[in-house]
Amino acid sequence: MIVDRFGRQFQNLRVSLTAACNYACTYCVPNGKKLQPAEAELDAEQLLRAVRLLVDGAGIEKLRITGGEPLLSKKFETFVRGVSELELKDTAITTNGQLLPKYMPLLEEIGFKRLNISLDTLDAKKFRSIARSGDLETVLRGIEMACDVGMKVKINMVPLKTANFDQVLPLLDYCLDRGIELRFIELMNMGHLKLSDQYERDFVSLDMLLATIRSKYEVEPITAAYDSTSLRYEVVGRGIFGVIANESEPFCRSCSRLRLSSNGHLYGCLSNTKNYDLSPLLTKPYPLALNELQGVLTSALGDKQSIAFTGETTVMKFIGG
Question: Which helix (H) or strand (E) holds 185?
Answer without folding.
Answer: strand 181-185
